[in-house]
């Protein structure tokens, strides 16, 4: 079961890094720098801060659900 | 049909629906009462979580806050959604796997200590009551403005409705009413937003209209807002005013606080399997994101509409909605420059937090403000931020049924959150305090009775807060999130991911996190509000963001304690082995 837990931690680490990047990174720290790019009427940094990061959050959770279901499947026979 | 009749009809119909659901889903045992028998479908649980989470504050206040604070408002948007990623990846699946009824129950078992459980219960009750006070105020505002009944009567009606489905149905009743309430509230939020988006930008999707050009011109809405705000001397709409470090801290405190709120966590105990718990957080966030990506668009539209319809308009030509809200004291105007027209500039128009009024009317028929004028600002207007969403249909001249719908939606948002909070309070008292600590010999039936009694008492206390609202409702929100971030979130996270954390570490960590966060917020918000600015703050962190510091203190304390106190006993290792398996 050690390897299941390890792979689990790896998934969490990778996904939380993306979580940090889109919110604290693109939405706050590099937000001002990203403002030089525009999509439609949005300055890119502003878009990440007020809307874009939320879309990424939703996608991240569903990627997590998918990866964990696969992981559970892989280890389902080993346990019990 | 008149607006008022329509409003009565909509609100009456939704209330009848909630009571009907209450009768249909009566709780039979404690499993039903605490976790709806663990039989809730993940999509239904996602909707219930969204309704549970989106309170009167989300529905009524957040768009208004963004309208007036521009880019700074992003802390709430990211903070109140990003926490769900933490919840999905770090807490929900493991706590569901643990398979019990309440959050303090996990803390008590994992840290093999009654004291740890009691500390957790105290944190939980404190967090939940501060939150409920805000919901009841929301119910009061909606009733007094839309149904023109006395605020107190409105609160009592709200209490009776919640009593029906929370006390009878417990978690089961609450869950299915929350599903209905989610549908009502999201429909009520999106319909006016879509109308206004079409009016302002011609784009029917508010999320896109937000970045589109203003009708009849080639100027982007956000560029227009930047231009108007700058012309009037405000900070440009799409620029921050707070320091980057403070924004990071506030966002983080709201995210970690969200993940540590007991009434949200407990929702993921109600689904059948661990797999469902993960999926359910995802659905919950989709349903929440529908509102939270619409809110900044609504805020921007509202700001543009106010500038167009109010700025330099003569008071005698003021739109109908302006006078309606002035009547109940949430809008006020004082003609400082004697031109008979209204001007909105930076700074407060008046001294004091809210305007109070003298009897009689001024020369243009306006209500006379009793507050001292703020001489440092030319601003003539007070506009309460809480009215933006409620007034939007009037500002945009939408049909009467939209107006009625918004009233029903706001009530759904407030009642669903209040019910969820009441449930975690009552289950922590009947289950964690009575059954698990002080009266372990009570039968299942008696425990269910205790749960119903404590839910009733909690409703009475919440109603008291609604009728005598503490003046500090707005400030205590910072407190609720700060405390959740500095006490419950670290205790859960450490409990799941670090085997060595012992009971001494968890208890001391929670207590120190609680004390530091509580004293910092009380110091700046209640004792010395005059010093509440960046010059006096610790490292420039505002009270709203201080939960992060409390959380770090909690972590450090817990790790230090592993050096000085014995390791957790073997049974804890067994629990952890179970929750770490697929």
Q: Count of helical segments of chain A?
A: 3
**Quantity of strands of chain A, as a count:** 2
Please give the number of β-strands of chain B: 4
Major sheet size, sense and barrel closure of chain B? 2 strands, antiparallel
Q: Which descriptors apply to this entry?
A:
heterodimer, A: 80 residues, mainly alpha, two-stranded antiparallel ribbon, 80% helix, B: 582 residues, Sodium/glucose cotransporter, two-stranded antiparallel sheet, 21 helices, globular
Protein architecture, described:
The complex is a heterodimer of chains A (80) and B (582). Chain A is mostly helical and 80 residues long. Chain A has one domain (2-75). Chain A is built from three helices and two strands. Chain A has helices at 2-29, 31-34, 44-75; strands spanning 38-39, 42-43. A two-stranded antiparallel sheet of chain A has the order 1-2. In chain A, a hairpin with a 2-residue loop joins strand 1 (38-39) and strand 2. In chain A, helix 1 packs antiparallel against helix 3 (44-75). Chain B is mainly alpha-helical. Chain B is built from 21 helices and four strands. In chain B, a hairpin with a 5-residue loop joins strand 2 (357-361) and strand 3 (367-369). The radius of gyration of chain B is 24 Å and the shape is globular. The mean pLDDT of chain B is 84. The interface between A and B is large, with 42 and 48 residues.
Write the layout of secondary structure elements.
The complex is a heterodimer of chains A (80) and B (582).
Chain A: H1 2-29, H2 31-34, E1 38-39, E2 42-43, H3 44-75
Antiparallel strand pairs in A: 1-2
Helix pairs in contact in A: 1-3
Chain B: H1 3-24, H2 30-35, H3 42-53, H4 56-69, H5 74-98, H6 103-110, H7 114-147, H8 151-201, H9 206-209, H10 221-231, H11 244-259, H12 262-265, H13 274-309, H14 320-327, E1 331-333, E2 357-361, E3 367-369, E4 381-383, H15 387-395, H16 400-438, H17 444-467, H18 473-497, H19 503-527, H20 547-564, H21 570-579
Antiparallel strand pairs in B: 1-4, 2-3
Helix pairs in contact in B: 1-8, 1-16, 3-8, 3-13, 3-16, 4-13, 4-15, 4-16, 5-11, 5-13, 6-7, 7-8, 7-16, 7-17, 7-18, 7-19, 8-13, 8-16, 8-17, 10-13, 11-18, 13-15, 15-16, 16-17, 18-19, 18-20, 19-20
């Amino acid at each position: 079961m050690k390897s299941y837990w390890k792979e689990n931690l790896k998934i969490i680490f990778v996904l939380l890094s993306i979580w940090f990047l889109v919110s604290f990174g693109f939405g706050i720290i590099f937000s001002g720098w990203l403002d030089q790019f525009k999509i439609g009427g949005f300055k890119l940094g502003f878009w990440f801060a007020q809307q874009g990061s939320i879309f990424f959050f939703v996608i991240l959770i569903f990627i997590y659900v998918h990866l964990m279901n696969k992981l559970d499947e892989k280890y389902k026979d080993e346990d019990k | 049909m008149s607006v008022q009749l329509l409003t009565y009809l909509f609100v009456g119909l939704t209330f009848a629906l909630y009571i009907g659901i209450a009768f249909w889903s009566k709780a039979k045992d404690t499993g039903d009462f605490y976790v709806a028998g663990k039989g809730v479908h993940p999509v239904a649980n996602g909707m219930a979580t969204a309704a549970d989470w989106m309170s009167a504050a989300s529905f009524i206040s957040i768009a208004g806050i963004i309208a007036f604070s521009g880019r700074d408002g992003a802390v709430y948007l990211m903070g109140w959604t990003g926490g769900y990623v933490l919840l999905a990846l770090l807490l929900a699946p493991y706590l569901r796997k643990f398979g019990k009824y309440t959050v303090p129950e996990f803390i008590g078992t994992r840290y093999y200590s009654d004291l740890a459980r009691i500390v957790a219960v105290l944190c939980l009750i404190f967090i939940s009551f501060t939150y409920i006070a805000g919901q009841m105020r929301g119910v009061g505002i909606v009733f007094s403005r839309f149904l023109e009944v006395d605020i107190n009567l409105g609160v009592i009606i709200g209490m009776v409705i919640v009593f029906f489905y929370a006390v009878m149905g417990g978690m089961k009743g609450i869950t299915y009413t929350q599903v209905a309430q989610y549908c009502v509230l999201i429909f009520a939020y999106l319909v006016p937003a879509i109308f206004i988006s079409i009016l302002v930008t011609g784009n029917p999707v508010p999320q896109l209209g937000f970045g589109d050009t203003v009708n009849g011109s080639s100027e982007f809405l956000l560029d227009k807002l930047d231009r108007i705000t700058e012309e009037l001397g405000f900070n440009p709409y799409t620029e921050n005013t707070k320091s980057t470090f403070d924004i990071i801290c506030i966002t983080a405190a709201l995210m970690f606080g969200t993940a540590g709120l007991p009434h949200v966590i407990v929702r993921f105990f109600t689904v059948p399997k661990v797999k469902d718990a993960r999926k359910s957080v995802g659905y919950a966030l989709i349903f929440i994101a529908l509102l939270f990506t619409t809110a900044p668009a609504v805020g921007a539209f509202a700001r543009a509409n106010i500038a167009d319809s109010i700025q330099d308009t003569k008071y005698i030509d003021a739109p109908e909605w302006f006078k309606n809200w002035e009547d109940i004291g949430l809008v006020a105007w004082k003609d400082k420059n004697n031109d008979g027209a209204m001007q909105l500039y930076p700074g407060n128009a008046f001294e004091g937090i809210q305007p109070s009024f003298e009897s009689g009317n001024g020369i243009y028929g306006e209500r006379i403000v009793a507050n001292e004028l703020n001489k440092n600002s030319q601003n003539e207007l007070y506009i309460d931020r809480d009215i933006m969403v409620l007034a939007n249909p009037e500002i945009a001249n939408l049909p009467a049924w939209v107006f009625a719908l918004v009233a029903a939606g706001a009530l759904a948002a407030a009642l669903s959150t209040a019910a969820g909070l009441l449930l975690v309070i009552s289950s922590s008292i009947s289950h964690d305090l009575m059954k698990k600590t002080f009266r372990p010999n009570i039968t299942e039936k008696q425990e269910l009775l205790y749960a119903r009694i404590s839910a009733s008492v909690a409703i009475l206390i919440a109603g008291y807060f609604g009728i005598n609202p503490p003046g500090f409702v707005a400030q205590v929100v910072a407190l609720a999130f700060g405390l959740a971030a500095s006490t419950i979130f670290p205790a859960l996270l450490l409990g799941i991911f670090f085997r060595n954390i012992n009971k001494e570490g968890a208890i001391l960590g929670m207590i120190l996190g609680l004390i530091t966060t509580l004293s910092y917020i009380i110091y700046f918000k209640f004792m010395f509000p005059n010093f509440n600015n960046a010059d006096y703050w610790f490292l420039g962190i505002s009270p709203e963001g201080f939960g992060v510091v409390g959380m770090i203190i909690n972590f450090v304390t817990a790790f230090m304690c592993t050096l000085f106190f014995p390791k957790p006993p073997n049974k804890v290792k067994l629990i952890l082995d179970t929750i770490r398996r697929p």
